Q: What sequence folds into this?
């Protein structure tokens, strides 16, 4: 009996000791910011919060992850590029001009080539010139080399219109030539070619895009296309943006379609005043411009060829 009682007493002592130790352990490890609150169904609420967080993450990434952005409007980029495999047909043709073959095909963006003052000067030229005519649809163009100007549902020669002598001055033309040469040198540097092998080609033009309903096929600027197929003389394409995305207009982003079946492969460029986009003109760079939903988007396309027989001269004062 004594042994049994002793065993019980020892067991009770051990149990009491463990309880005491546990009590000490709980009271000597305080929470850093006080005890966590407890409430009914805490585990269910915790799981709900985790699930909600996952859903929000999936929604956010699926919304913003449909495309790759090469340049956002808020970015200020000295130079940013992306290389792609050259189209074989493009390479076959351009090898006729050995000093004009790119080290790599692709696209580049720079916000440091053209100054805001230069961009403003060219924007004023575009506005004054297009105001003498303008398309009745959503896309107007002005080519200061040939004089082609959208006018209602057709084209006219701007230099035959009354008031055309005032839309561009000799100093405007000087700025235009400076900007054109800056872009030419940047294309040569980024694609690894001899700048003397590049020639300005037709068409090089100002564009004004709005949300007006299209009246002719010329107004439908949003279709996917390849510059080399649209304009045979093109080997290198550039655009200088003269207005800002989400400031002067909405929509109107430039989109490279790297995989038409997978929009996540699309690469977008948001226009920024003074931003230059340069790319090889072959089928490695299919693209389109999104429809402008509000406001007005101005830009100038400056195109280059490696074929001297397809070159055009700088415009002169009329």
A:
């Amino acid at each position: 009996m004594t042994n049994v009682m002793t065993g019980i007493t020892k067991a009770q002592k051990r149990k009491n000791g463990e309880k005491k130790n546990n009590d000490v352990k709980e009271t000597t490890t305080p929470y850093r910011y006080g005890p966590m609150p407890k409430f009914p169904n805490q585990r269910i609420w915790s799981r709900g919060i985790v699930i909600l967080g996952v859903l929000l993450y999936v929604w956010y990434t699926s919304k913003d992850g449909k495309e790759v952005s090469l340049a956002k409007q808020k970015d200020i980029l000295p130079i940013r590029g992306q290389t792609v495999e050259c189209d074989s047909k493009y390479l076959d043709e351009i090898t006729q001009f050995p000093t004009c073959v790119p080290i790599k095909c692709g696209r580049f963006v720079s916000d440091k080539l053209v100054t805001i003052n230069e961009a403003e000067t060219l924007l004023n030229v575009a506005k004054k010139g297009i105001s003498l005519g303008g398309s009745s649809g959503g896309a107007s163009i002005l080519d200061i080399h040939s004089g082609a100007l959208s006018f209602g549902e057709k084209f006219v020669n701007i230099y035959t219109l009354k008031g055309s002598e005032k839309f561009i001055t000799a100093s405007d033309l000087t700025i235009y030539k400076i900007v054109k040469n800056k872009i030419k040198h940047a294309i040569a540097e980024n694609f690894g070619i001899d700048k003397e092998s590049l020639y300005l080609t037709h068409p090089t033009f100002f564009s004004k895009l709005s949300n007006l309903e299209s009246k002719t096929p010329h107004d439908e600027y949003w279709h996917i296309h390849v510059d080399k197929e649209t304009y045979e003389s093109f080997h290198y394409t550039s655009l200088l943006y003269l207005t800002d995305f989400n400031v002067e207009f909405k929509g109107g982003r430039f989109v490279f379609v790297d995989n038409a079946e997978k929009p996540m492969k699309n690469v977008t460029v948001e226009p920024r005043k003074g931003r230059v986009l340069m790319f090889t003109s072959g089928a490695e760079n299919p693209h389109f411009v999104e429809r402008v939903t509000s406001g007005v988007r101005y830009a100038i396309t400056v195109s280059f060829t490696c074929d001297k027989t397809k070159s055009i001269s700088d415009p002169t004062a009329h």
